[in-house]
C-alpha cells in the first residue's frame, strides 16, 4: 500500500485497536490465476504460541478457498472512517482530497479443523452478541442448526507484514486542521464526523 511517511501509522497498539474495532475486512488471494476477494469478519487473535494471527471462516462453496492450497499468500484489507475533504475549507488555494484510515495485513493462510472452526464461531458470536438483549450462544444452538457449520472452512492467517495508513490532514497547519474538523462536523455525515473525531485525537 502506497503511504507517504507523514501518513504512516507504525504504533502497534493503535493498529491493534483499529483491527479489533474494524474487523469486517476483505480477504484477497489468487485462485486459478485470477484475483478473488470476499467480504467477511476477520478477527485479530492470539494463538497458543502467543503470536498474533487473524482468524475467520469462508464458505466451502466459495471458489476462493480453492486457491489456499495452491498459494497460501493472502492480503486482508481493513478500512475505517473516510471522508471527502473540500479545499474550500482551507485559507489558501489547493486541491480537494480524501481522509481515511486503512490497514493492509499480508500473511499466509491455512485451513483449520472443524473443532477449531467451531471455537472461532463461538468467539465471533460472543463478541457481537455482547450487547444484545437476548444474546445468542453457539453452545445453545440445536444440532440441526449447527450442521450448517459443516459448510464453512475456518482459517488462520500467520501475519508477515502490516501496513497502516492514517491520512488525516497531518500536512495542514493548526488553523486549517481545526477548520477541517469543524467543517466535517457540520456535514452531519456519520463517516465525516468519525473522521473529525479521529483528527481531534491526533492533534489537541
Automatic annotation (TrEMBL):
SUPFAM superfamilies found in the cross-reference section: FMN-binding split barrel
Domain of life: Bacteria
Transmembrane segments: none
Protein name: Negative transcriptional regulator, PaiB family
Species of the source: Flavobacterium saccharophilum
Amino acid at each position: 500500500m502506497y503511504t507517504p511517511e507523514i501518513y504512516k501509522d507504525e504504533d502497534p497498539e493503535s493498529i491493534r485497536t483499529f483491527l479489533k474495532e474494524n474487523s469486517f475486512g476483505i480477504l484477497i488471494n489468487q485462485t486459478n490465476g485470477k484475483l478473488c476477494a470476499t467480504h467477511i469478519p476477520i478477527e485479530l487473535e492470539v494463538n497458543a504460541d502467543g503470536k498474533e494471527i487473524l482468524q475467520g471462516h469462508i464458505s466451502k462453496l466459495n471458489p476462493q478457498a480453492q486457491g489456499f492450497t495452491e498459494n497460501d499468500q493472502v492480503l486482508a484489507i481493513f478500512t475505517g472512517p473516510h471522508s471527502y475533504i473540500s479545499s474550500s475549507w482551507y485559507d489558501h488555494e489547493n486541491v480537494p482530497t480524501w481522509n481515511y484510515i486503512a490497514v493492509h495485513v499480508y500473511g499466509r493462510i491455512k485451513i483449520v479443523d472443524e473443532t477449531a472452526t467451531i471455537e472461532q464461531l463461538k468467539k465471533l458470536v460472543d463478541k457481537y452478541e455482547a450487547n444484545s438483549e437476548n444474546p445468542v450462544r453457539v453452545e445453545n444452538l440445536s444440532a440441526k442448526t449447527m450442521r450448517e457449520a459443516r459448510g464453512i472452512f475456518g482459517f488462520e492467517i500467520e501475519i508477515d507484514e502490516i501496513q497502516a495508513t492514517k491520512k488525516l490532514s497531518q500536512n495542514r497547519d493548526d488553523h486549517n486542521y481545526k477548520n477541517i474538523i469543524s467543517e466535517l462536523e457540520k456535514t452531519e455525515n456519520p463517516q465525516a464526523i468519525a473522521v473529525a473525531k479521529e483528527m481531534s485525537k491526533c492533534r489537541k
